[in-house]
Write a structure and sequence with these properties.
Layout lengths: L3 H21 L4 H5 L13 E9 L3 H9 L12 H7 L22 E3 L8 E8 L3 E6 L5 H5 L3 E13 L3 E13 L1 H34 L18
Antiparallel strand pairs: 1-6, 2-3, 3-4, 4-5, 5-6
Helix pairs in contact: 1-6, 3-6
């Protein structure tokens, strides 16, 4: 019995660390305290997370990649091993700008799952090269929603220019959940996972914006990966 205590303690410390990282990784205190477009959509959130990173391109170069995100569209820019492990039905995230997705407007639906799931976001705010706010009440399983469970949340992506040639990306989630067991499940599973997923998304986005600025010339007999059309 005594031998199990160090493992329990270590597990508790690891869980606590993931809870913190799942809420604030990469972000500064000033960013977490700042008001962002879309905050008013969920005015009294029971869950708030803020993740941030500095990307190696100005907002005008980041925006085309950001605005095309979505399931089986631009993707969410996570690594393929993450997709295969957690979301095996996902297609690879795009390595190119998709012209048909560059003219999105307020009210457009961005899918986050197969059509039959009805899962996705509605664009609530759109300020080119600055911010995009997505809103969803459809992310819980349909059977749960039919029994009264709710998750009402927003994703806000906010771009700020840094030194004229880089972008500070702040990714904020605000949500309310009910009943209490849904909130507890979110706390236990989604918040720690958010540390991994948000970091993956930002690193994947950064790799793409950097590559699109200085693409390597294709080797003989190979196709430029930035010009490949997704199937």
């Amino acid at each position: 019995m005594v031998r199990t205590k160090p493992f329990i303690l270590a597990g508790g410390v690891a869980f606590a660390a993931l809870q913190v990282l799942g809420r604030v990784s990469g972000s500064r205190r000033s960013e977490r305290l700042a008001s962002l477009p879309g905050d008013e959509i969920v005015p009294r959130p029971t869950i708030t997370t803020n993740h941030a990173a500095t990307l190696g391109a100005p907002p005008t170069d980041v925006w085309p990649w950001l605005v095309q995100m979505g399931w089986h569209q631009g993707g969410w820019y996570t690594s393929r091993w993450v997709d295969r492990l957690l979301f095996p039905a996902n297609l690879p995230a795009s390595d190119r700008i998709i012209p048909d997705l560059q003219n999105r407007t307020i009210g457009d639906f961005i899918p986050d799952g197969p059509p039959e799931s009805g899962c996705g976001f509605v664009i609530e705010r759109l300020d080119r090269d600055v911010s995009m706010v997505l809103h969803s009440t459809t992310h819980l399983p349909l059977a749960w929603r039919r029994r009264g469970a709710t998750l009402d949340w927003t994703w806000t992506f906010h771009l700020s220019e840094v030194d004229g040639d880089r972008t500070r990306l702040l990714f904020r989630t605000r949500g309310t959940l009910s009943p209490i067991w849904v909130w507890l499940l979110y706390q236990a599973l989604i918040v720690p996972a958010d540390f991994v997923m948000a970091g993956q998304m930002m690193r994947g986005l950064d790799r793409r914006v950097r590559a699109s600025r200085t693409p390597d010339p294709p080797a003989e007999g190979h196709t430029d990966r930035l010009a490949v059309t997704r199937r």
